[in-house]
Inverse folding.
C-alpha cells in the first residue's frame, strides 16, 4: 500500500470531469454544478464495484456449478447480491448507466429513476443526502440528462482503477473548483494528503493490541480518517500486525455538509469497512433525535477516543441568525465551560469538543492534532471567550506543541496555518512545557499550482519536523527553529490604569470642557478630592432677570461645599458650566506574567498614577493568554544600505539605456 499519488494522472481525470461541469453553463447556475456532477461520479463508482462483484461471483458459481443455465445463473447471482451478508450494497434492477443510455431516450428519465430507486437502503441514503432526485428533474428540463449519462457510462472509476486515496483527491479537487466557480467563501479547506500524513505521524498512532479509536468531528469527505488507517496499515510489517489493525482499530467521524457526508459514505461502502462509522450532523451541538438539525452523535458521556485529528472550517459563523448559537449554548456549562469564542469563528468550539472526548490518563489518555489559522492563537482580549479557552488549555497542561506550517499549502487559501498538538498524558520531559516549531521554510514549490496550493511538504520536510518534535525536548538540544516555553510564558496581566498627563515641559496638562454632571456642592467636593489640584469653574447663571458669569476657584484643602454655597447664595438658575482641570488618561496596559505590576507602570508610564486595576472574573484577578509564534521567531534583518540600493539603481538604469539603444538601432 502506498500513500503517494500520481497527480498528473488524477489532474487529467479531474480536468475531464470538470469539462462536463462547464457544459452546464447557461442551463445551471455555478453553485448548482456540483449537484449534477458529484452524485453521478459516486453512482458510477458504486456501479463499477457492483459490476465487478457480479462478474466475479458469476465466474465463481459457473466454476462450481457448470450445468446452470444462463438464466438460472443470473437469478442466483441476483439473489446473492440482494443478501447484505454477501454484498455490502445492491441494486434490484438490471439497469446500468450504459443500458439506460442505450435504451429509448423517450424513456430515459423513467429508466434512470428506476435504476436510482433500485439501490439498497445504504446507497439510497447517499442519494438522498445529495438530493439527487430533485436534480434529475432539473437535468431533464434543461436537456442535460442524456449528455451526462453518455459521458459517465463507461468512465473507469472503480477501486481497481482508482484507490480510495486517489478518488479522494479527485473529489476534493472538484469540490475546490466548484467552490471557486460559485464564489463561495472558503470556510472549508480540504487538507493536502502530505499535511494529513504529517499530523498522523506526529500523533504516533501505534499498531493496536486492543481496541483503539480515532475521531474527526469535521470529517469532510473522510480524508483524515482514511489516511490515518491507510498509514497504519502501511506501517504494519507483518500480516499479523495488519490483522490487528483491521480487528482493533475503529474510526469515527461526523460531517454536517450533506454533499461531503454522501461522498464519505460512498467511500466507506466501497471499502466495506465495518470498523468505520461516520454520522451526519453538527458536532458542536447536542443531538436531538426529533430535530431537523441532527447534532453530535458521539457524545462524550458515551464515547472517548484515543486519537483525534481534524481540520475544522476557518472563521465560520456559529452564532446570530445564520448560526446555531442557541443549541450550542446548551453545552455552555459542560463541554464549553471554559468559554465560548466570538460568534463569527467557531474553530475553538471544535477543539473543546475534542478535548471533552479524551480518554482519561489512567486509561492511556488521548492525543489530538488540529489545524488552525492564526486566529485561535491570539484573538480575544483578557477575559474573552478565546483567552479563557487558551487559559483553560494551558493551565490544564494539555497543549504540547504547535507546528508553524508554510503558507500556500491549501487548495482554497494561501494563509499560514498551524498544527496544534495536545495530549493529556504528557511524559515528564513535556510537562508544564510547550514546544513551538518553525517549519515555515520546510517546503518545495509544486510543479503546477492547484488553486492557492503552490507549495508542498515532501517526505524530507516531514521527517525534519518529526525529528524536532521527538528530540527537541532534551535539555542540551539547540536549534533556532525550536523553542520551548513554560505555559505561563504566554500569560499576561491586563491592567486598566488612570494617570495624570503632562505637557511638553513636563508640567501638569490641563483641559477645559463643559461640565456634564449635575453641578452640586457634593459633586464639586468629589471632583476636588479626585483631582487633588486646582479647579476652576465658569458658571453662567440667571438671577433677577439678568445673566452673568460666576467663577468658582478651588485648591486642595479648600472646603468645597462652603465655597460653593457662598458663590451661589440665593440659588440662581444655572444655565451652563465650563470647568478647567488637570488632564488624565485612561489606558490598558498588557504586562507579561511575572512582572511586578507597580514597578512596570512606574517604569513604562513614568507619570503620576491615579489608580490601576487588573481584569477580574467573579471578583478575582485573571490572566490573559495569547500565543505569538511570529514574535518568538522574529529575526531582525537590517535594511539594505543606501549605497547598495543606489548602486543597484544605476546598474538597472544602464541596462535600460542599453535596451533603448538596441531598440533605436533595430
Amino acid at each position: 500500500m502506498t500513500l503517494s499519488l500520481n497527480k498528473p494522472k488524477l489532474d487529467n481525470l479531474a480536468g475531464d470531469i470538470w469539462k462536463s461541469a462547464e457544459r452546464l453553463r447557461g442551463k445551471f447556475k455555478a453553485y448548482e454544478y456540483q449537484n449534477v456532477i458529484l452524485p453521478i461520479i459516486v453512482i458510477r463508482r458504486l456501479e463499477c464495484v457492483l459490476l465487478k462483484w457480479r462478474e466475479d461471483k458469476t465466474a465463481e458459481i459457473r466454476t462450481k456449478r457448470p450445468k446452470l443455465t444462463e438464466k438460472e445463473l443470473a437469478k442466483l447471482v441476483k439473489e446473492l447480491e440482494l443478501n447484505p451478508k454477501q454484498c455490502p450494497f445492491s441494486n434490484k434492477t438490471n439497469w446500468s448507466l450504459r443500458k439506460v443510455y442505450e435504451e429509448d431516450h423517450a424513456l430515459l428519465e423513467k429508466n434512470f429513476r428506476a435504476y436510482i430507486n433500485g439501490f439498497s437502503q445504504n446507497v439510497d441514503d447517499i442519494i438522498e443526502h445529495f438530493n439527487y432526485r430533485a436534480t434529475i428533474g432539473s437535468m431533464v428540463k434543461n436537456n442535460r440528462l442524456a449528455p451526462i449519462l453518455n459521458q459517465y457510462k463507461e468512465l473507469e472509476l472503480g477501486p481497481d482503477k482508482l484507490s480510495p486515496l486517489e478518488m479522494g483527491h479527485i473529489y476534493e479537487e472538484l469540490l475546490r473548483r466548484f467552490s471557486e466557480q460559485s464564489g463561495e467563501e472558503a470556510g472549508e479547506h480540504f487538507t493536502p494528503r502530505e499535511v494529513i500524513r504529517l499530523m498522523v505521524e506526529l500523533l504516533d498512532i501505534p499498531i493496536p493490541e486492543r481496541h483503539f479509536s480515532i475521531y474527526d468531528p469535521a470529517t469532510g469527505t473522510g480524508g483524515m480518517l482514511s489516511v490515518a488507517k491507510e498509514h497504519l496499515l502501511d506501517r504494519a510489517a507483518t500480516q499479523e500486525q495488519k490483522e490487528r489493525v483491521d480487528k482493533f482499530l475503529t474510526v469515527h467521524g461526523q460531517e454536517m455538509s450533506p454533499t461531503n457526508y454522501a461522498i464519505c459514505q460512498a467511500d466507506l461502502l466501497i471499502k466495506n469497512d465495518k470498523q468505520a462509522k461516520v454520522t451526519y450532523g453538527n458536532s458542536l451541538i447536542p443531538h436531538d433525535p426529533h430535530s431537523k438539525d441532527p447534532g453530535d452523535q458521539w457524545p462524550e458521556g458515551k464515547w472517548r477516543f484515543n486519537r483525534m485529528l481534524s481540520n475544522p472550517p476557518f472563521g465560520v459563523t456559529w452564532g446570530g441568525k445564520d448560526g446555531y448559537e442557541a443549541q450550542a449554548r446548551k453545552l455552555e456549562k459542560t463541554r464549553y465551560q471554559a468559554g465560548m469564542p466570538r460568534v463569527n469563528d467557531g474553530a475553538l468550539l471544535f477543539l473543546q469538543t475534542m478535548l471533552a472526548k479524551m480518554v482519561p490518563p489512567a486509561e492511556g489518555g488521548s492525543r489530538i492534532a488540529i489545524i488552525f489559522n492564526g486566529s485561535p492563537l491570539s484573538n480575544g482580549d483578557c477575559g474573552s471567550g478565546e483567552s479563557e479557552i487558551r487559559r483553560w488549555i494551558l493551565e490544564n497542561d494539555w497543549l504540547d506543541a504547535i507546528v508553524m506550517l508554510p503558507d500556500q499549502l491549501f487548495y482554497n487559501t494561501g494563509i499560514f496555518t498551524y498544527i496544534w498538538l495536545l495530549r493529556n498524558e504528557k511524559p515528564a520531559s513535556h510537562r508544564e512545557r510547550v514546544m513551538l516549531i518553525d517549519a515555515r521554510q520546510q517546503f518545495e514549490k509544486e510543479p503546477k499550482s492547484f488553486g492557492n496550493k503552490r507549495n508542498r511538504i515532501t517526505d524530507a520536510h516531514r521527517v525534519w519536523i518529526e525529528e524536532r518534535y521527538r528530540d527537541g525536548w532534551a535539555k542540551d538540544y539547540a536549534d533556532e527553529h525550536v523553542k520551548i516555553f513554560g505555559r505561563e510564558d504566554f500569560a499576561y496581566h491586563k491592567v486598566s490604569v488612570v494617570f495624570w498627563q503632562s505637557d511638553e515641559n513636563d508640567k501638569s496638562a490641563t483641559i477645559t470642557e463643559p461640565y456634564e454632571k449635575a453641578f452640586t456642592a457634593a459633586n464639586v467636593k468629589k471632583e476636588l478630592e479626585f483631582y487633588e489640584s486646582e479647579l476652576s469653574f465658569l458658571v453662567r447663571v440667571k438671577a433677577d432677570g439678568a445673566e452673568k458669569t460666576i467663577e468658582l476657584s478651588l485648591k486642595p484643602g479648600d472646603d468645597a461645599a462652603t465655597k460653593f454655597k457662598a458663590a451661589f447664595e440665593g440659588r440662581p438658575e444655572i444655565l451652563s458650566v465650563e470647568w478647567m482641570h488637570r488632564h488624565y488618561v485612561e489606558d490598558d496596559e498588557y504586562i507579561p506574567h511575572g512582572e511586578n505590576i507597580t514597578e512596570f507602570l512606574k517604569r513604562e508610564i513614568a507619570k503620576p498614577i491615579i489608580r490601576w486595576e487588573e481584569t477580574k472574573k467573579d471578583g478575582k484577578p485573571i490572566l490573559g493568554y495569547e500565543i505569538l509564534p511570529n514574535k518568538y521567531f522574529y529575526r531582525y534583518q537590517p535594511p539594505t544600505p543606501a549605497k547598495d540600493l543606489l548602486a543597484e539603481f544605476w546598474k538597472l538604469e544602464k541596462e535600460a539605456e542599453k535596451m533603448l539603444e538596441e531598440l533605436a538601432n533595430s
Summary: Residues 185-489 form a domain with the Rossmann fold fold (CATH 3.40.50.150). The chain has three domains: 7-162, 185-489, 510-582.
